[in-house]
Amino acid sequence: MIRVVLADDEPLIREGWAAMLSLHDDLTVVGQAADGRQAVEAGAGADVVLMDIRMPRMDGLAATVELTRRSPSTRVVVVTTFENDQLVWAALRAGAAGYVLKRAPAGELVEAVRLVHSRRAVLFPDALRRIASPHHGSARPRRPVALTPRELEVLRHITLGQANPEIAAALHVSRETIKTHVTNVLDKLGARDRTHAAVLAYELGLILHGIEPG
Fold first, then answer.
1. Given CA atoms 151, 154, 159, 165 in this order, what sign does their dihedral have?
2. Are 114 and 2 contacting, i.e. CB atoms less than 8 angstroms apart?
3. In what helix (H) or strand (E) does residue 29 lie, and over which residues does it extend?
4. Where do the Response regulatory domain residues begin and end (predicted)?
5. 117 pLDDT above the threshold of 70
6. CA 126 to CA 149: how far, in whole Å?
7. Which end of the chain offers a freer environment for a tag, N or C, measured as fewer CB atoms within 10 Å?
8. DSSP 8-state code for residue 162
């Protein structure tokens, strides 16, 4: 059972999300929040938090930073009406594991919750590559990043949204080998999860924008 917290300052939005999630046996709503501070308190310990960006007292970006610091295992999905690349990029850098637009079909929101909870792959890798383009090579590593050629290859596939079985098949190695490589990549980058690793890969210039698997 995936425990979900709903954070939005509009009660009708939260009620709609709750009704939609209640239709699925593997999802349960364990809390709600009307502002960012409440989201941090209610979300700590939950599996997934659906987080609005524009909220009173503390906005969704600040709440995401605080929540992921306080509860590293909690995954945040930013849900927003704003189709704004800068806001989405800021949310991902703040610690969000993905984002969904409020106008997206209900099934997309449900699958986003499941995907970020499973940590199998990056949510919407095509969109991530698009919004990452202006930020490519914009950051310097806080510490030296010495990835092996194979780890760089694995990172490339991570940024394409591929899960371990897909990467293993592409590189003709076992899933356990890929699991080890992914763990090493996240550790060397200091990344919270695959989405954060992808963000860092673009910011550090480790991955060329728009690269596709060979």
1. negative
2. yes
3. strand 27-33
4. 3-117
5. yes
6. 23
7. C
8. -
Give pLDDT tens digits for 142-175. 666 889 999 999 999 999 989 999 999 999 999 9
User: Identity (one letter) of the amino acid at 138?
Assistant: S
Asked if pLDDT for residue 138 goes beyond 80, the answer is no
The secondary structure of residue 209, as a DSSP letter, is T
| pLDDT on residue 208 | 64
Letter string b/e over residues 6-28, b meaning 16 or more CB atoms within 10 A of that residue's CB: bbbbeeebbebbeeebeeeeebe
pLDDT at 1 over 50: yes
Residue 188 has pLDDT above 90, yes or no: yes
Round to whole Å and give the CA distance between 18 and 32: 9
Strand partners, 99: 78
- DSSP tally for the chain: helices H, then strands E: 10, 5
Q: What is the reported pLDDT for 77?
A: 95
pTM above 0.90, yes or no: no
Helix ranges (DSSP H) in 50-171? 60-70, 85-94, 106-118, 125-132, 149-159, 164-171
With left for phi above 0 and alpha for psi between -120 and 50, is residue 161 left, alpha or beta?
A: left
- Burial class of residue 58 (count of CB atoms within 10 Å of its CB; 0-12, 13-18, 19+): middle
Strand order in the sheet with 2-7: 27-33, 2-7, 48-51, 75-80, 98-101
